[in-house]
Specification:
This protein is mainly α. The chain contains two helices and four strands, in the order ααββββ. The chain has a two-stranded antiparallel ribbon.
Length: 160
């Protein structure tokens, strides 16, 4: 006598989807991972703005130095009492006469401060004290951001 065992489809359980518990667990894992990535993303944005601020400050300071060099060599006319520094940022953008027929520009445009979102900068003249936040406007010796926020390295943007 032979015993025959039949295996039918009804005897084997078959999974057709995921359970509610599996779904909740996978969503929880995704939320944890995304919450860990959010501060990194915010930090990246701040670093990009800081890099842009450094680049803009370097560009404007180089323009001030080029103006001063030409004024010291008496190649461009500078106002008396300015010590060869430009009167303002607009002068660097508009340019000055260089020789009888040429005009030299030092900046294409006044950059937007990435920390404040405006084209306003703290300017410092040669006669101002180093820690002042406002200038008498006689000449443009240095430039700083108007932002009072603190950088990633712990320094204030206004001191850069």
């Amino acid at each position: 006598m032979k015993i025959r065992l039949e295996v039918t489809r009804r005897n084997i359980p078959c999974q057709k989807g995921i359970t509610l518990l599996e779904l909740i667990m996978s969503i929880a894992i995704l939320l944890i991972l995304s919450s860990a990535a959010l501060p990194v993303f915010r930090q990246t944005i701040v670093r990009q703005r800081e890099t842009e601020l450094r680049r803009d400050l370097r560009e404007m300071r180089n323009a001030i130095d080029r103006y001063k060099d030409l004024a010291d060599k008496n190649l461009i006319h500078s106002a008396v009492g300015s010590n060869g520094y430009p009167p303002d940022l607009e002068t660097l953008v508009k340019g000055v006469n260089f020789g009888p027929t040429d005009r030299v520009r030092f900046l294409r445009r006044i950059p937007v401060d990435p920390m404040t979102g405006q084209k306003e900068w703290n300017v410092q003249s040669l006669q101002d004290s180093p820690d002042t936040q406002s200038s008498d406007g006689s000449n443009l010796f240095d430039i700083h951001s108007k932002s009072q926020a603190i950088a990633i390295d712990g320094t204030a943007y206004s001191t850069w």
